[in-house]
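Pipeline run #58 for the internal structure catalog. This entry was flagged by the ingest filter as a single-chain record with no existing model, so it goes straight to prediction. Upstream metadata was stripped on purpose; only the residue string is passed forward. Reviewer on rotation: M.T. Logging verbosity set to normal.
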Amino acid sequence: MIKLTRLDGEKFVLNADLIRYVEAHHDTFITLISGDHVVVQETMDEVLERAIEYQRAKHMVPELG
């Protein structure tokens, strides 16, 4: 999960596993595997860095039991 900010300033958390691709136009557009779009204040590079960090953290968590 990565923390992002909508254009109106509202913070939200996005499941980074659902990202299909990220585009840098005037704003940053995230397209999800569902086809839905999210526009955020963060740059494409910031979204990429957070998604990579999320994937790293996800694989470093030890399994229980």
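catalog note: Residues 44-60 form the longest helix (17 residues).
catalog note: Strands lie at 2-5, 11-14, 19-24, 28-32, 37-40.
status: ready for reviewer M.T.
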